[in-house]
Amino acid sequence: MEYSTWSRRIAELAGASSRLEAEAEAAGVAPPGSASWRVNLHQKLAPQATDAPYLIVAVAGGTNIGKSTVFNHLVGFPASRVHPDATQTKHPVCMVPQGFGARHDLRRVFPGFALEPWRSEDDALGDGPSNLLIYREDPTGAQPANLVLLDTPDVDGAMPVNWDRARLIAHAADVLVAVLTQQKFNDAAVRRFFREAAAADKTILAVFNMVEWPEDREHCDRWLETFRKGVGAIPSHVYAVPRDRAAVRDNRLVFHPLTEGSTDPRPDLADLQFAEIKIRSLRGALRRMLDPADGLPAFLRLLQARADENREARTVIHQKVQVKIEAPELPGHIVGDAIWRWLEPRRTWFDRKVHNVYSKLGKAVVRILPGRREPAEEEAAFIEAEKTQLARALENVYHELEMVHQVGTPALRQELQPLIAGDQRRRAFDQLRERLEATPLATDAYSRAIAERLERFEAEHPNMMRAIEWGLVATAVIRPAITIGMFGAADIAAHGVLQLGTHSIGQIFFDVAAGSAMTAGGEGAFAKLGGPAQKLIADLFAEFYRERAKLLAGVIDDCVIGRRLDRIERLAAISESDDFKAVYRIAGDLSRELAAWDDVNTDMDATAGTPVPAGT
Fold first, then answer.
1. Of 91, 149, 147, whose CA–CA distance to 121 is shortest?
2. pLDDT tens for each residue of 465-477
3. Closest CA to 537 of 614, 590, 476
4. Beta strand 518-519 with 476-477: parallel, antiparallel or unpaired?
């Protein structure tokens, strides 16, 4: 597995996963922040895999076994104070290469720790939060640029805080230097710590410290075999360090290699296969992240299931919740006055004089027609009829929602329950009345739409505008039927000219039969106009109903089901999103590569680094 390809996939997965989680959270479905797969992906894999490979080496072990002594040998100078008393080191100390902090974000390198810069050798001994980590840049410049060293507190302390800190250390480290003694090599707490580290594919080096050399040479092999069986891992290098207080004081420990290929921990660490070990270290986090039961695959299955449920809910609402309104008869002067206002500045003095005679005559005739009312009365009657129609439409919406709620899936019922509550329904009706009262019949948007439509018509049919003027002597009337379908009801037949288009919650259609435009007085001048002019008047009336239909659709969207439909729509589409597909694809690729890695390395892991007594 090539490191650059592997790390690129991890970075792509982390980015797509973050966006997918944001999409899911916006739709009401998100993993908890403490989910194991999120922690391993965003706090372990992404921060470390996306950088050039470097190793975090932690010197770890039980109480009073000389961990700080071994740490000082690795860094090359007395960086950590050595104490004869047990449990003096309370906080891990990190030695980073020069310039490492400028190249890497230490908070991402050590997730879960509270970082503080080193001030003195007493920092690791003082009080502080249990997750405190002291970091220091190597003052000598000798530390390899891709090697980070940790001196750690005891892993076998009696307090739970010690266990939590030990887990944080094991989680962050790639390589563990297990410092062991004759008394501590088989301690239960020590075995547990390194067994968990081995299960997470950490590379282990073993140092038997404070031995009687060479008398304990043969005992070291037996101790190593016991340690190896107890933790289930084969250390890659093993050393023995004689008991020598003067060497400890002068930082000149002697490390006797116990396995083939071992020399001294400092050059041996520098010679490690960094890319291979980094992948191996992160492989444990990758395995936990891809765990089928509670890892990323489980989250993807949850999203897929919710998407399927909400697609079904969307289909049910699409089929069931459709509302048709017979629009009230619009007073013709609303459209006529708007056209006159547009025409007025374009007419000559002679045209005004001649046309006004016919206009007055036409109006006088219209006033004596049976059933004719004043404009104000017509507008009031239209508003009252519209309120009744729209209130009835809302009631129909709620009726359809209740029917869907009764037969829907548990997920759909959960989404619809808040919508059909009494308080929500009253608010919707109140807001409908408020919006109708606050909205004039002829809005500014309607006036602009009429002006734009007339300008296009004039450019296309310049000789027909005079016919339109004469036709306006009689008032035109058109009454469309308005259909609102949730989620874009594509199967609703719509008049091609008068279709409103897509709204945020669906589509609104005008169903207008051919030839439904007529004059208030019957077969008058307007009815005898040519096809383009008649179509123009029909379009101008339809534009008015567009505005009114948007009003109703807005109320439904804001007060009734808009937000819930938006949530259903998001969840229904989430498994088809590019980010879902990317996460699914990359997770599958990594799972297959992980399985292949395990198959290839099963035999190798059983034999690689097998302890061979020196000199054989």
1. 91
2. 665 655 554 444 4
3. 476
4. antiparallel
**181 is written with which tokens?**
């003694």
**Omega of the bond prior to 214 within 30 degrees of 0, cis?**
yes
Average pLDDT for 338-357: 62
Helices (H) and strands (E) in the chain, counts: 23, 15
Instruction: Report the alpha-carbon distance of residue 569 to residue 585 in Å, rounded.
Output: 23
Q: How sure is the predictor about 521, in pLDDT bands with cuts at 50, 70 and 90?
A: very low
What is the C-alpha separation between 186 and 170, in angstroms, rounded? 19
Rounded Cα gap, residues 6 and 289, in angstroms: 15
Residue 101: per-residue pLDDT = 87
Report whether 247 contacts 254 (CB < 8 A): yes
Structure tokens at 581: 């597909």
Return the residue matching tokens 């589509």.
Answer: 507
Residues 6+ apart with CB under 8 A from 429: 391, 394
Residue 541: which of 391, 362, 382, 390 has the closest Cα? Answer: 382
For the CA atoms of 123, 124, 130, 131, what is the dihedral angle to 10 degrees? 90
Count of residues making up the chain: 616
211 three-state secondary structure: strand
DSSP state for residue 174 in the 8-state scheme? S
What is the distance between the alpha carbons of residues 425 and 432, in angstroms, rounded to a whole number? Answer: 11
- C-beta separation of 469 from 339 below 8 A: no
| Token pair 């230490």: residue | 106
Residues 6+ apart with CB under 8 A from 190: 61, 62, 155, 156, 178, 180, 184
pLDDT at residue 513, rounded to an integer: 32
pLDDT digits (tens, 9 = 90+) for 357-390: 545 544 554 454 455 567 788 888 888 887 887 7
Q: What is the DSSP string of 569-608?
A: HHHHHHTTSHHHHHHHHHHHHHHHHHHHHHHHHHHHHHHT
Rounded CA-CA distance 549/188 in Å is 75
